[in-house]
């Protein structure tokens, strides 16, 4: 009797690699089967897939947390696909309500223009600018007009909109939801229609908006995009997501020495998550490094490799080498070759006021807390007396491991 069982044909090795790269570090890829079909079609036709990432220029600077999604874009770009860096200059006028417990204040056109000027320039430190399509959603959103906006709003209902987690919580918590906030996910979804996106990327907090793109593309009789969400990067504290408001971030335009030292400050456990989400090393290389640590290699050595990779990406290999030397010098109690020069009047001056006036602490209260914790040195000596007053002279003042100033104190 003949064997009538069927087996699925083996996946082409190139497609298998493309799927592995697509799935690296992701939270979700929906639906996987559709993405594989899109990859197969692209390979067969030679037509690149259109990969969309939309970012509202709510702030002028990007930190490493933002680059998690940008890294994924770069990986897909290196596979030969067309990435579209969409600046949400129109949607920024509304303000993204994702994850908010209150209405987000909209930005002014002037703020948006200022922030957008540096946004793509910084993103280009990760993406290949020569292979990146830059778009602004004011191109199509501004021309919608009142009629087009009403027609777009008719594509979705209020009941489904209220299923969105933040809207649901705010409604049942008796907190205000403005009608214009419902327009944000609709317009973000409409961006996918305008761009004919094959995939849209975002953080886990963007899932509702990304799925809206799928829905609206179907409403406009387009092939729906796939959705890829990336986890939110845990910040330097090892607890909360990286955020400027939490002060647990590394800005991608920060000084190379600061970037290197901050990376080395993360825990050994968190290091592996950062390797997965931030490093361009292969998963096999990362697995090999992890095995080496398990076999006794000092984890700090492996963390140094990560710090140098990140610093090289946003500065240069030479800057990363210099940052490592600077860090080693500081860890041995040495003073960097170049430190800020500050001249202050008012000698004799209390140590707390000196630290604040030199810009080494935000307040005298913070200065006192650092002194109590043994985190302040003057000319290499640990200061423990809050009441210390310094006479006129020149002092090398150190706060923590990374902040230095050469202070000239005058009467």
UniProtKB/TrEMBL annotation:
Its main location: cytoplasm. Pfam families: S4_2, tRNA-synt_1b. ATP binds at residue 244. InterPro entries: aa-tRNA-synth_I_CS (IPR001412), aa-tRNA-synth_Ic (IPR002305), Rossmann-like_a/b/a_fold (IPR014729), S4_RNA-bd (IPR002942), S4_RNA-bd_sf (IPR036986), Tyr-tRNA-ligase (IPR002307), Tyr-tRNA-ligase_bac-type (IPR024088), Tyr-tRNA-ligase_bac_2 (IPR024108). A motif ('HIGH' region) lies at residues 57-66. GO terms for cellular component: cytosol. Keywords: Aminoacyl-tRNA synthetase, ATP-binding, Cytoplasm, Ligase, Nucleotide-binding, Protein biosynthesis, RNA-binding. A motif ('KMSKS' region) lies at residues 241-245. It catalyses: tRNA(Tyr) + L-tyrosine + ATP = L-tyrosyl-tRNA(Tyr) + AMP + diphosphate + H(+). It is found in: Cytoplasm. It is an enzyme of class 6 (ligase). GO terms for biological process: tyrosyl-tRNA aminoacylation. Its EC number is 6.1.1.1. Residues 349-410 form the RNA-binding S4 domain. GO terms for molecular function: ATP binding; RNA binding; tyrosine-tRNA ligase activity. Catalyzes the attachment of tyrosine to tRNA(Tyr) in a two-step reaction: tyrosine is first activated by ATP to form Tyr-AMP and then transferred to the acceptor end of tRNA(Tyr). HAMAP family: Tyr_tRNA_synth_type2 (MF_02007). Homodimer. Belongs to the class-I aminoacyl-tRNA synthetase family. TyrS type 2 subfamily. This is Tyrosine--tRNA ligase. It comes from Lampropedia aestuarii.
